[in-house]
Write a structure and sequence with these properties.
The complex is a heterodimer of chains A (about 190) and B (about 190). Chain A is an all-alpha fold and about 190 residues long. Chain A has one domain: Up-down Bundle (AhpD-like). Helices cover about 65% and strands about 0% of the residues of chain A. The two termini of chain A are about 30 Å apart. Chain B has one domain: AhpD-like (Up-down Bundle), CATH 1.20.1290.10. The longest helix of chain B is centred in the C-terminal third of the chain and has 23 residues. Chain B has about 190 residues and is mainly α. Helix content of chain B is about 65%, strand content about 0%. The chains are: A mainly alpha (about 190), B mainly alpha (about 190).
């Protein structure tokens, strides 16, 4: 049972967003820019960062939906998502993404945990300033989203097919478009 | 030295915002709605929640700038800012705000740390669902802002005058426009 009365039938963050459309709009805009809009990091890479941080924060809804979006963005590759959550240093991903995941993990533990060594490693693997910036902000933003979703005790169904199906749709259409399904028209513009 | 090449002379989050205006926009809008928009909680109360969470996350820039904004709102009750950071249960704030600060502190530790007892206590003190929602989201959002500011290792000057004028500006105008319009003098470094 959620801590407050959220609209029924909308799991995870969707119930919270429908409850408060004024804050839903900037939240959707932020995640759209960070994860979906074209960038030198692919959507799949960015979704893996979001999934990893959500997994470290132990947020079932976020790690499952973003894991599904990552898989859909990576040609339906669910095994790489599992690898990243388990042990990203041994996963079949680029050395650059591994270095960025180190930074993301440090941000998850606290802003002051980010080390100059981790930044130097990422830079050595070709990461640009904006990629490092976005990695820090994606990790920071998921420390917000995860706390929002779990802090309200939202409903988080254990139904992998639901996440898989929705993941494909978000990967294709993006967050803002999909949010129009559950937000009043004026908030989803 | 910041981890990436941020615009010089801009303190804390203002440098991250200037570096990446695309993500700055929704982040500003979110802060504006949560802290400055219409609410049954006063702006002073909401700034105290933001200050408390930033203090628990040990983010100097955020706790000082939001503490200054809270002080500007609170006027002759500005001493509450230091009291809340030190020991809010024995501060002069309302019982309702104390109950909301308990929830905010739980969110800071992690979404799953929010207890039904804390929510019940807030409700007993008259907190509404919307006030509980906003408390959870303010606390979650500051777990993002704090990590963003410290995770990039932004410049955070120790200049009380700069923060009090930022606080005045934020209290008067909110978060949509930069509270610092020109680089702070180099000599302040």
């Amino acid at each position: 049972m959620p801590h407050i009365q959220l609209p029924e039938g909308l799991p995870g963050i969707r119930g919270a967003m429908a409850f408060r459309p004024e804050t839903a709009k900037p939240l959707n805009d932020l995640v759209e820019i960070l994860l979906h809009r074209p960038n030198s990091l692919t959507p799949g890479e960015r979704e893996l960062i979001a999934t990893y941080v959500s997994s470290e924060n132990d947020c079932y809804y976020c790690q499952t939906i973003h894991g599904a979006i990552a898989a859909a963005s990576l040609g339906d590759d669910e095994s790489v998502v599992k690898q990243v959550k388990q042990d990203f240093e041994a996963a079949e991903i680029s050395e650059k993404l591994k270095a960025l995941l180190v930074i993301a993990g440090q941000v998850q533990r606290g802003g002051k945990q980010v080390t100059a060594e981790a930044i130097a490693r990422a830079r050595k693997q070709g990461a640009t300033d904006i990629e490092i910036h976005d990695t820090v902000l994606i990790a920071a933003a998921f420390c917000m989203f995860n706390r929002y979703v779990d802090g309200l005790a939202t409903t988080q169904p254990r139904d992998e097919e639901m996440y898989r199906e929705r993941g494909k749709r978000v990967a294709r259409d993006g967050y803002v478009t999909v949010s129009k399904e559950y937000l009043p028209a004026e908030a989803a513009v | 030295m910041p981890h990436i090449s941020l615009p010089e002379g801009l303190p804390g989050i203002t440098s991250g915002f200037a570096f990446r205006p695309e993500t700055a926009k929704p982040m500003r809008e979110l802060a504006h709605t949560l802290l400055h928009g219409p609410s049954t909680l006063t702006p002073g109360e909401r700034e105290l929640i933001a200050t408390y969470v930033s203090s628990q996350n040990d983010c100097y820039f955020c706790q000082t700038s939001h503490g200054a904004a809270a002080a500007a709102h609170l006027g002759e009750k500005a001493a509450l800012v230091e009291q809340v950071k030190r020991d809010f249960l024995h501060s002069g704030v309302s019982e309702k705000l104390k109950a909301l600060l308990v929830i905010a502190g739980q969110v800071q530790q992690g979404g799953k740390s929010v207890s039904a007892e804390a929510v019940e206590k807030a409700r007993l003190q008259g907190a509404t669902d919307l006030e509980i929602h906003d408390t959870v989201l303010i606390a979650a959002a500051f777990c993002m802002y704090n990590r963003y500011v410290d995770g990039l290792d932004t410049w955070q000057p120790r200049d009380p005058g700069m923060y009090s004028s930022m606080g005045e500006q934020l209290a008067a105008h909110g978060y949509l426009q930069p509270s610092i319009s020109a680089p702070v003098l180099e000599t302040a470094k």
